[in-house]
Design goal:
mainly beta, Cystine Knot Cytokines, subunit B, 2 domains, four-stranded antiparallel beta sheet, two-stranded antiparallel sheet, 1 helix, Spz/Toll_ligand-like
Amino acid sequence: MYGSFTTPGGNRLRRAPGAPDLHDASGDSYFRHVRQASNANLPDPQSINSTGRIDACESKTDIMTPYWALNSARKLRAIVNTMHFEQAIHQEVCSKKSTNRCTRDCGCEQKYKWHRLLAYDPSDDCAGIFMDWFLFPSCCVCRCNP
């Protein structure tokens, strides 16, 4: 009785926190159909950049695990990143302000994207851990004057 319960109107057994319910009654993975459906929609890795085209602006792509960042209210927050819980950000940063392909009235500009990460306020221990929004570089584009 303790540690498990059944859902009303259903025959699926639910487990209490700490006891994962990852398999259905047949012993098969409950999330198998989700993984199979999501993998079917992915493009072939070889065909992603097979158009032969190149970017007009040079950039550096990096995957990072930030520890400190300013949130949407411009307040410094500590981002939860430990050995057991890692939050990675894929970012692309402009290498130059202009290139041979992006010149004259055009220039390379940095674009940013909002990420929602688990963080805490280092100046307020009572606030605990919470989700917050942070802005990170996402791509580099060539923009021209109209």
